[in-house]
Write a structure and sequence with these properties.
binds flavin mononucleotide, single chain, 335 residues, alpha/beta, eight-stranded parallel β-barrel, two-stranded antiparallel sheet
Length: 335
């Protein structure tokens, strides 16, 4: 008998644990349909950014003022905003179209960092048919005056603000760079996160030696990256009342299986699909299914978290004790 691949994520029942992460592959209806045809269980749309929402609101405000209070100098200052057409309207349209065209859950994503008025857009996501919302908080604390207490409060307030706008579940995608990750995870859940998406991948700038320029450098991931999410999902599984999604470094069925065993409710993939195309979803799903059948796992629900820190025979493997052991037992890679 084939294994039951269904998995609960947020309050959604996914037909399997593979979700398309926010990426250019989820930004058009055509490619969303291809992902669904390949067997994806849910899709996360690329983020709508706080700046896009605020731009549109300023542009509307500007139009209302034009001719009246607005000076010619000020009018000249805003033209690019009036032409700004990639804002919320197109995004809301995509949510509606995706909902009508797809049977799988559609999860739009909001990217922001200030708990301001822009979060009202979450309500419109819900009205457009979103099954859940992913709140992607991307904030780099570069100000020497900002303390970690202030930054953490900003995250909590932002989650509470988005949560208060909607009745659909809100998942929060965060970075791994907190001093007290476990405590932060618990507080995000207390503030209303129904799920955590671990982790956001910060883009690291690079220096181009030939041009002597600093360039933003978007590199696709490799499987090596997956162990960051693996550790934290294993640690948090069963200790917080929230769904857990893994993102970052899942490329093969083996990667997906490891994250499920650690305790992920679903595994989100972007880089592997950008490299191999939407059909790679089918390879991942069948790879997971075959392994489970060989190992006689009846269902993903049964398998999920069976090697989490709470269930695993060696809980120290996820903590400092393992660090000491790993360093002292290194015997050198064959060169
Ligand atoms: C080209 C590109 C665009 C992305 N755009 C978004 C985005 O709009 N919002 C978001 O939350 N994550 C975005 N991501 C991050 C992915 O959703 C994913 O979390 C990350 O790439 C790690 O997964 P991977 O190792 O499977 O690529 C993007 C990633 C790539 C490569």
């Amino acid at each position: 008998m084939s294994a039951d691949l269904r998995s609960r994520y947020l309050s959604l029942e996914l037909k399997n644990p593979i979700v398309a992460a926010a990426s250019p592959l989820t930004k058009s209806l055509d490619s969303l349909k291809r992902l669904e045809d390949a067997g994806v269980a849910a899709v996360v749309l690329p983020s709508l950014f706080e700046e896009q929402i605020e731009h549109e609101e300023m542009a509307t405000h500007n139009l209302m003022l034009s001719g009246a209070e607005l000076s010619p100098e000020a009018r000249g200052f805003f033209p690019e905003m009036q032409n700004y057409n990639t804002g919320p309207d197109n995004y809301l349209k995509l949510i509606g179209e995706a909902k009508r065209a797809l049977a799988v859950p559609v999860i739009p994503s909001l990217n922001g960092y200030t708990p301001g008025g822009w979060t009202h857009i979450a309500k419109q996501f819900e009205q457009a048919g979103a099954d859940a919302i992913e709140l992607n908080i991307y904030f780099l604390a570069t100000d020497l005056e900002h303390t970690s207490t202030e930054i953490e409060k900003r995250y909590i307030d932002l989650v509470a603000s988005v949560r208060s706008m909607v009745s659909i579940p809100v998942a929060v995608k965060v970075s791994p760079y907190f001093s007290a990750m476990a405590n932060m995870a618990a507080r995000l859940v207390a503030a209303g996160a129904a799920g955590l998406v671990l982790f956001n991948r910060f883009l690291q700038p690079d220096i181009l030696l030939d041009e002597l320029e600093v360039a933003p450098h978007l590199m696709l991931s490799t499987s090596d990256e997956l162990r960051l999410a693996l550790r934290w999902i294993a640690i948090l599984r069963g200790r917080i009342q929230a769904s857990l999604a893994a993102t970052g470094g899942a490329h093969t069925a083996a990667d997906v299986l490891k994250l499920l065993l650690a305790g992920a409710d679903c595994v989100m993939v972007a880089s592997s699909l950008l490299r191999k195309g939407p059909n790679h979803i089918a390879t991942l799903v069948s790879g997971v299914e075959n392994w489970m059948t060989e190992r006689e796992y009846a269902s993903v629900e049964q398998m999920k978290g069976s090697l989490s820190q709470l269930s695993c025979p060696d809980p120290a493997a996820f903590e400092r004790a393992n660090y000491m052991k790993a360093l002292t037992s290194y015997s050198g890679d064959p060169v």
